What we know:
The protein has 2 domains: 15-179 and 349-380, Rossmann fold (3-Layer(aba) Sandwich); 181-342, 2-Layer Sandwich (Dihydrodipicolinate Reductase, domain 2). The protein has 15 helices and 16 strands. It has helices at 2-14, 50-60, 77-85, 96-104, 113-117, 132-142, 154-157, 163-166, 181-197, 234-238, 276-284, 294-297, 302-311, 349-360, 366-380; strands at residues 25-26, 37-38, 41-46, 65-72, 89-91, 122-125, 145-148, 175-177, 201-209, 225-226, 246-254, 260-267, 289-292, 322-325, 330-332, 335-342. Strands 9, 10, 11, 12, 13, 14, 15 and 16 form an 8-stranded mixed sheet that branches. It has a 6-stranded parallel sheet with strand order 5-4-3-6-7-8, sandwiched between helices. The relative contact order is 0.16.
Amino acid sequence: MVEARFFMFHLVQVSAHVSLLFQRFVNRGSSKAGMLRTMTVKVAINGYGTIGKRVADAVDAQDDMEIVGVTKTRPAFGCDLAVRKGYPLYCTFDDAERIASFAEAGYTCHGGLSDLLAVADIVIDCSPGKVGASNKDIYQNAGVKWIFQGGEKHAMTGMSYTSSANHKENLNVEGTRVVSCNTTGLSRTLVPLYEHCGELQVECTMIRRAADPGDSSKGPINAIKPVLKVPSHHGPDVMTVKPEIKINSMAVAVPTTIMHVHVITATLPEGHGLTTESILGMWSKNPRLVIMNGAETGITTTAEVMEFARDIGRKWGDLHEIFIWEDGVKLEGNTLYYFQAIHQESDVIPENVDAIRALTGIEDDWMSSVAKTDAAISKYNHL
Length: 383
């Protein structure tokens, strides 16, 4: 059983439809539109931090896109990583004094954000949440496509994205947001269930990490903090990518920095025809899911899941997949209970790559995009 699960995991990682010999011709649909050409998409990263540095490498791994620059607000330690990777460095602002500060610190800065957007087809906004509205205006005025992260509201972007739920709906649109790590995780397991059943009602509790490992400004340190906005945004956010799934969520922050855990109860319709085993089989056929038996593997906590990611050589110890405990899944009648774990720093990273393909129209099949993305990342990281 354990060997089969490990094999399944690696199969998901390395199997890919990578025989795309020619890229589709697309209309970029911006002020630079009207030119139909084979695309190598020129990608700008606005915000080279926890998410931005990971997205940059994921994009750099692909053969149909390239990084044309990354931004930092000021010269800081993150600039060194960009320089080592060979990514052109830009300032987040167009202010001449801020731009000059990079040279004073010994870095070559190629200009401000406007200069970067002038050489880009699309910008991935990885800046801190809640600044999206002003950035969106900048991107629209520059005539580039744009992708925000889940810290921004659906109401601001008008579109949301996760590959398993609504890739086609995002084809050739001007911009979107990749939904949050939690919403991405919920979608990966719930969408296959919905597609089988035709309807789904879900209640879930998000047990959230208090802060990322590199974040020294957040807590709690010695407390459990309930999110007193009910429902929390995580569940209803699923409905921005799959409105047919009826879902509510509650959330609580706990003093850990590694992973979120979801406690999910899904009500299936009468006559669903599923069993616990068939649900596990269904998930095993979908990408970016890892299913392991906690009792058999000894992986029973998020600490061990993260150790597993490091053991298999993942850069930064990232786990792009959602981790499901096989022995924590049970279907009783029409009610399905299960646990899953989310690596909050990384599960959205490959989704940004797939969103680029959707917005530029170079791949209209989500499974093909996912396979290409994941195979390229594995090769890039020598896995």
